[in-house]
Amino acid sequence: MKQYLEFLNHILNNGQRKDDRTNTGIISTFGYQMRFNLEEGFPLLTTKRVHFKSVVHELLWFIKGDTNIKYLVDNDVRIWNEWPYRNFTKSSDYNGETQEQFVELIKTDLDFAKKHGNLGPVYGKQWRDFNGFDQLTNIIEEIKNNPSSRRLIINSWNPPQIKDMALPPCHMMFQFYVFDDKLSLQMYQRSADAFLGVPFNIASYALLLALVAKVTGLTAHEFVHTVGDAHIYIN
Fold first, then answer.
1. Interval 162-214: pLDDT, tens
2. Of 130, 180, 181, 231, whose CB has the highest number of CB atoms within 10 Å?
3. Residue 120: what pLDDT?
4. Can you tell me whether residue 70 is helix, strand or coil?
5. Annotated active-site residue in 170, 173, 210, 211
6. Which residues have C-beta within 8 Å of that of residue 95, sequence separation ≥ 6?
7. What DSSP character marks residue 90?
8. Residues 164, 115: Cα–Cα separation, whole Å
């Protein structure tokens, strides 16, 4: 994927050293865009392994409107475990369990999972119940019935609820575009871990584009990935 390698080179050649939330230190640039034509193939990185099973299950989890990690851990997806475990260690129920033991309890104890597995109103909640509004169902109907609309937007950034989320949305909004029976999607990502997260994000939104194109009877065309703070961790 030439576009991705050019993206990394851009950060390394033009980035600034900055402090960050994790106190690790980053090389950061602001404002970058990549384009991937799905008619030429699916944009799955080959120079770095992307765990595609996790891409699929996380996306299905979003689509379902789920915000509890139980579905993910039941399907061996571990990418969200850190945040509910951290909250669990601060609770009165914590008795020194390791993260691995915590995950096993999520898998085997439904009451425990309901109490300690929730991430708050993260992506799935916003896609399917944004202050009572189902954005995903609405967008599919709009694409079918009003494809020329410039309002085909889903927003995950819900300011009053940010404080209740385990992690504020990084890929925070996306917009669909229809022309000549072809469907494109542009996603805006406010914060992008270029090495660890971006290959996963590219695959996830390309898959979302393919799925929405399928259910609306269109051809999946172009995924446009627009990034705000693009960074590489110094470590």
1. 999 999 999 999 999 999 999 999 999 999 999 999 999 999 999 999 999 99
2. 231
3. 98
4. helix
5. 170
6. none
7. T
8. 15
* 170 in catalytic set: yes
Residue 203 confidence (pLDDT): 98
Beta pairing partners, 175 = 153, 186
> Which residues neighbour 40 within 8 Å (Cβ) at sequence distance 6 or greater?
none
Tell me what pLDDT residue 48 has.
Answer: 84
Domain ranges of the chain: 2-67+120-233, 69-118
Domain 2-67+120-233, what architecture?
2-Layer Sandwich (3.30)
Low-confidence ranges of the chain (pLDDT < 50): none
* Burial of 44: CB neighbours in 10 Å, binned 0-12, 13-18, 19+: middle
Nearest-angstrom CA–CA distance, 194 and 102: 29
Lookup result for tokens 């446009």: 224
